[in-house]
Specification:
heterodimer, A: alpha/beta, 5 helices, B: alpha+beta, Chemotaxis protein chec, 3 helices
Chain lengths: 126, 179
């Protein structure tokens, strides 16, 4: 059985590596995108993606624009998105929820808690 | 001057946020006197992020030796200079992100810019403001991390004396909420 894929959309290489370290060892396949625009392309071209972790503050296309774009995209619509950001603003959290986000994580994250959240949203890795 | 008071209190909040972040990364930062530092002799990194709203604009820059950013890096020590520059961006982003979250309790809501960083030899910053604000300095393992906060405020801007329970409270760092 193939592994489930999780897409991490973040302009920080360090954060993408941290997420990979936390999730790949548990058996998830990790795909990476550096900004929202690359994230949209990845969601459209990898239909096997089980879940997206998405930063908010990124160049080219930010996390809320990413959410809005895939919400209006029939190919991207079923993919659950959890925001992973330094921002804890209730207004932004409410806005992301309205745009279809399934959760919100404030950096820095604890790897075991991130893994638990991913299991809850995406299910077991295979 | 109200502006000076605002400046000092905003610098205190940002200093506290940065100190908490460094502690979360396993460092033991100690605030030190803001003396002028000679330029570092080795490779240094400067990373900065801007923030602002209609009344308050500013930027925060973290400056330190590459070795210090490597010491603070959360992943195994296989880092290239590019990795360290990226990490410095994330560090300043998380520091200013905490600052933004704390300001919400004062009724101040700022937007953040995408952070940027630069590597250089013999790096030393100078401020574009006159008088130049004193940098916030942290001593970590015999190395110095400097934080440069530059602020511009509209004349009517006043930071509340204390955080208000009536204001929106930001989700704390490390929190996870699933909808």
């Amino acid at each position: 059985m193939s592994k489930k894929s999780v897409l991490i959309v973040d302009d920080s290489l360090t954060v993408r590596q941290q997420v990979m370290l936390a999730l790949a060892s548990a058996g998830y396949r990790i795909l990476e995108a550096c900004d929202g625009r690359e994230g949209v392309d990845a969601v459209r071209s990898h239909t096997e993606i089980a879940m997206v972790l998405c930063d908010l503050n990124m160049p080219n296309m930010n996390g809320l624009e990413f959410l809005d774009t895939i919400k209006g995209d029939s190919a991207g619509l079923p993919v659950p998105v959890v925001m992973l950001t330094t921002d804890g603003s209730p207004d932004l959290i409410a806005r992301a929820k309205r745009a279809g986000a399934k959760g919100w994580i404030v950096k820095p994250f604890q790897p075991d808690l991130l893994l638990a959240a991913v299991r809850r949203i995406a299910g077991d890795p295979s | 001057m109200p502006g000076d008071s605002n400046q000092a209190r905003l610098a205190d909040i940002l200093s506290q946020c940065t100190s908490e972040l460094l502690a979360d990364l396993g460092a033991r930062p100690e605030r030190t006197e803001p003396r002028r530092q000679p330029p570092s002799t080795g490779q240094g990194i400067a990373a900065f992020s801007g923030f602002g709203n209609s009344e308050l604009r500013g930027s925060f820059t973290l400056v330190g030796p590459s070795e210090l950013f490597a010491r603070l890096h959360p992943l195994p020590p296989t880092m290239t200079p590019r990795d360290l520059a990226d990490w410095a961006c994330e560090l300043v982003n998380q520091s200013v992100g905490r600052f933004r979250n704390r300001l919400l309790a004062y009724g101040v809501n700022v937007a953040l810019s995408v952070p940027q960083s630069a590597l250089a030899e013999r790096l030393r910053l100078s401020s574009s403001l006159r008088p130049a604000p004193a940098p916030i300095r942290f001593s970590i393992d015999d190395m110095v991390l400097e934080g440069w906060l530059e602020l511009e405020m509209e004349s009517g801007f006043r930071l509340a004396e204390n955080p208000s329970a009536e204001q929106a409270v930001a989700l704390r760092e490390g929190s996870i909420v699933l909808f």
